[in-house]
Structures are given as structure tokens and as C-alpha cells.
Fold this sequence. Notes:
single chain, 172 residues, alpha+beta, Alpha-Beta Plaits, 3-stranded mixed β-sheet, two-stranded antiparallel sheet, 6 helices
Amino acid sequence: MAQMGFMLDQKYCIGCQTCQHACRVRHGVEPGTYPRVATSSQVEVEGPFISMACNHCSNPACVPVCPVGALTKREDGIVVHDPEVCIGCLSCRDACPYNHPQLNTATQKMVKCDMCAARVDAGENPACVEACPVKVLTFGNVEDLQAAGGVPEGVGFTYEATEPNFYFIPVA
């Protein structure tokens, strides 16, 4: 099965944070905890903006460090988290070079983007992709994302040894 990933067209992202809020609502976490983080046009005067969540890395640093096995990588490459097993020890966040797993302060367990695996399994887009008002955030098979012009580095993002599956349409 193919590795799934995200792609962002930074040239046209408006930094509205709609993707960030859709993800937060989808995960049922309190404001201030965001499995997806987007720069805001209120903070940044000009783009390019960035919208980042778990990169569903080919070699995720978070999975092997979880002492209770709460993180697993599915056959389609989606890294999922089981909050029923999680003990909130922060090991996954500390291991992630992108610092993406976040502590849900309401449950004292970690929360992270799961690429809306249940929605994907039902043939739907992840909530962040569906919510994007300018449709610059997409997801799909990484080979298709690369064929569509996606490159592994964007403004404000560096490709790490974990082999992130996040691509960018170049700004220039």
C-alpha cells in the first residue's frame, strides 16, 4: 500500500488557521491545543504561511520511543495514536524533530494528527484539507503529490532524517 502524505501550496496559503481549528475540533481538544498548527495572518504580516501537523514520517522517531505502544504506523503510512493506551509521558513529543505530538491538558494524554484516519478509511479528506477555504492543503499518495510538483522542503520547514511525508508547491 502507498504512503500517504500532505502537500501545501505556500504561495497561495492565506494563513487563516481554518485548517488548525478544524483539526482541533475533529480531535475534541480544548482551545490552545492544536494537533495542526498554522501561522496566522494576524501574527505574520506577509506570507509565505505554513500549516503543519504530524508528517507521518517514513521513519517516525515517535513510534519506537513510546513505552506503552500507543503509537503505530499503519500499512498506508499513517501514524496513529491510541489515547486509551497513552500515559502522557511526552516521549513522543520529545523524540519528534518537529515537536508535533501535543499534551492534551484536559486528559493529560498526548494528541496528534492522525490524518483523520477514520475519514480517510471512509473515502473522505482529512478535516484540515476539507476546511481549507482556498484549497491549498491537499493529501494523497506521496507519489501523486510528487508528480503534482511537490518538493520536500518549504519556507520554514526542513527535511529531517525521519523522512517526513509533507510536500510543498514551491513559492517561486
